[in-house]
Each structure stands twice: as structure tokens, then as C-alpha cells.
Amino acid sequence: MRSSLRFVSVAAVAAMLAAVPGSAQKSTGPKERYEMDVATMSGFAAMAGGKGGIGGAMGMMFGGDPSSRVAYQLMLRLGSNDAATAPPPKGDHFFQPQAKLGKSVPLISVERKEGTYPTEFERPKGRLLLYWGCGAKAGPGQPVIIDFAKVAAGQVPPGLFSSAVPVIREVSQANSRSYTDWPNSKNGKQPGGGSSLLGAHRVASNYGPDINFTLAQDYMQGLSASTAIQGDQSVMLRWNQVPTATGYAAWTIGGMGNGGGKDDMGDIVWWTSSASKEFGGGLWDWLPPSVVANLITKKIVMPPSQTSCQIPAEVKKASGEMMIGNLNAFGPEANFSYPPKPAGNAVWNIDWTAKVRFRSHTMLMIGADFGGMGGSSTGGSTPATPAKKKKCKGPLGIPLPDGAC
Length: 405
Hints:
Blueprint: H1 2-19, E1 27-28, E2 32-43, H2 44-47, H3 53-63, E3 69-80, E4 90-94, E5 104-109, E6 127-132, E7 144-147, E8 178-182, E9 199-205, E10 211-215, E11 225-229, E12 235-239, E13 247-254, E14 267-272, H4 289-297, E15 308-311, H5 313-319, E16 323-338, E17 348-349, E18 352-366, E19 376-377, E20 382-383
Parallel strand pairs: 1-17, 2-18, 3-20, 6-14
Antiparallel strand pairs: 2-3, 3-8, 4-5, 4-9, 5-8, 6-7, 9-10, 11-12, 11-19, 12-15, 13-14, 13-16, 16-18
């Protein structure tokens, strides 16, 4: 309660200061907002083109060593406060030739369909064991055990989701009068080998002015991760230092399918590198550098200088023979707006904003032996053929990051 009161008081002070004449520049808009999410995937995530999971593992077995594979992923969202001049809303993102995406990719509207979402809820069986923190041994109070048999249908245990890590989405269908995105049903082929985003970009639509910006930041370097089981049965996770990374977060999931009976799923073991019990939010997503810097001070995200993390022995023992692991490297962010911000206290009437977010992530199998390839994943330079993105959900419908399913 004390921290909540402190937050309110700080917010109140900020609001009062903003109300003082001449203390802050007023602005309007933006009328149109664009988001471009850029990911570099390596390891099993690249082999499956971002689809990942056991299917990706099987694909890796027959498709070769993932150590030389990376794949690129783009997600584009355009939202506006205005209606389309000639419905439905539509647009195009025009790239330079080096992007290897053709002249442009089509942004199309998302059809709202009623009654197409599943309404039945199958109560999970077994237990969820939560561990956290880097170290040879699990810290006090671990694991937190959630017994699915004792959970009422649809009821999420308190404190399971992250309270400190936001999921940041500024452009969505819900907050836009007109909205389009890519990939979509019309076109979803992701960029291939040798693609580069450097240079000029133009976004044109029938529900807002053209958006023009120039990128000086390209895809992030691929992550190269390896694991080694230590004498005390903990697992040492190591990775390369990505030059533009702002911080790292790791997780593993194991123990699935260890139950003895047909209806007994056994224990699902979930571990994260956070020093506190944080299992969600934007830890598996894109986060602004300022947010990442704040999370580093709280030891929820590992600093960009860190290149190893020890997975506790208890996690390895509870997980069984195989764990699925993921390492996320948060990256830089580029922001653009038009018209330019005026000098002094003149009102800034913003027509549009554009945000480009970067990250690099890898997936690896810990403790599995696929011809010596299961314990490492290296970000190389040969992109794999991307596959259609699959929505990932874990126990209790918990959203899991790319490559977890």
C-alpha cells in the first residue's frame, strides 16, 4: 500500500508541475501511428522459422545443424484515428531493394469475426512448479507450486503474472478507428537471406498521410547460446555478447509429460533468470531501452555485459531429461514523428509517429541429444525459411514466447 501511495503522490506532483504555465509543451495527436517489430531468430527458433517447439526440434533433426541458421521476422501495425477514404482500410510498406521483400508488402485490415473463439475450458492436470534466479541452487521459497486439480475453472492464481514488466503495444485494432497489419492472409512471407532494413522506408494508406523515415539500425546479430551440465547438476547457460543488446532474459520449460498415467500430465517446470518471481509481461517480447534499464536495476533483466547464467540444479532435476530453453536479447528502438517538434512552447500538432523495435532471441534444447546439436544454438548468417507464426499458450493459458510451442 505504501508503494502505491508513493506512486500516486509522484504522479500528482508531476501533474501539478505540468499544469504550471510554461512548464511543459502542449501537443496534439498523433492522428496516425505505426509500429515495426524486428526480430532476429537463431537456434531452434530459426530452424522452425519462429514456430519452434518439438516440431522445430524434429525439423532440425532432418534439416541439419542449426548452428549456421538465423531467420528474420517483421511485424507491422498501422493505426489511425480517421476512417478510410474508400473502405476497407488498406496500405503498403515500401522497402528498399536490399530488404528483399519486393517493392512493398500489403497492409490489410483485420476482419472482426464474432463467435469464432473457443468457449470451452479444459482444466489442466498435474502441477506447475515455478523457479527463478541464476545460481547453482534455487533460492528460498522455491518452487512455488500450483496444483491444477485445486484450481477452479478459469481462475488464475494470484501473483502468477508479472506485475513489474509491462507489455507495450501502442498500435492495435482496439485503439484505432482504422487498422491494418502484416503479415496477413494476403502476404506473409518473411525476409530471407541477406535482407537489410537500412535506408528509406515509406508507408502509404487510404486512411492517413504518408509516413517516411530512414533507418540507420539493421537486424540485430544472432544469439549463440550453449549449455553444459555441471558436476552439481546445475546447468551453465552461456551466450555471445550481442553488440546492440540492452539486456537479456532467459527461461526454460521442462517436465512436461512426465506423469505416470494417461490423465496425469505430471509436473510442468518453469524457470526464469529474473532474481524475483516474474513470469510474463514483456520479458519474452520487445521492450524499450528505458524500461529494460529500469528492470536491470531490479535484477529482473540481466545487464548487456552479462554472458552467462547458471540454471539451478533443482530445476534440472524436476524437469527431467529435456528442457526447452529460450534467451531473449532486448535491442534498440528508433522513433520518428512528423512534423518536427517546434521550438519553445508552441503547440506541437503531431500528424504521425513511427516506432521501430529490435530484439534477438534463440531457442535450444537442454539435455536432449540430437546428434550433439541439442545443447547449443548459434546465430549465424544463413536465414532459415520462416514459417507462419503460431500463437503459444502454456499452462492456465499463460502466453508463452515465440518458439515455446
